[in-house]
Amino acid sequence: MVRNLSLRDQSKGLSAGEKSMFVKARSVLVSELSFALDVPEDDALGEVEARLS
What we know:
Strand content: under 5%
CATH topology: Methane Monooxygenase Hydroxylase, Chain G, domain 1
CATH superfamily: CarD-like, C-terminal domain
Helix content: over 70%
Distance between the termini: 15 Å
Order of helices and strands: HHH
Structural class: mainly alpha
Shape: elongated
CATH architecture: Up-down Bundle
Number of helices: 3
Radius of gyration: 11 Å
C-alpha cells in the first residue's frame, strides 16, 4: 500500500484522504521496521524514503 501510494503521489498527486492514508501507513511501516531491525525510527524512516524514491 505504501509503495503504491508513493508512486501515485509522485505521478499524479494524492487527494487529502489518500495523503492521510499514506502518512498513516508509512508511519506504521516505519514503526514496524524500526522494531524489527532494532534501529531508531529516524533510521527506519530514512531507509523507507530511500527505497521509495
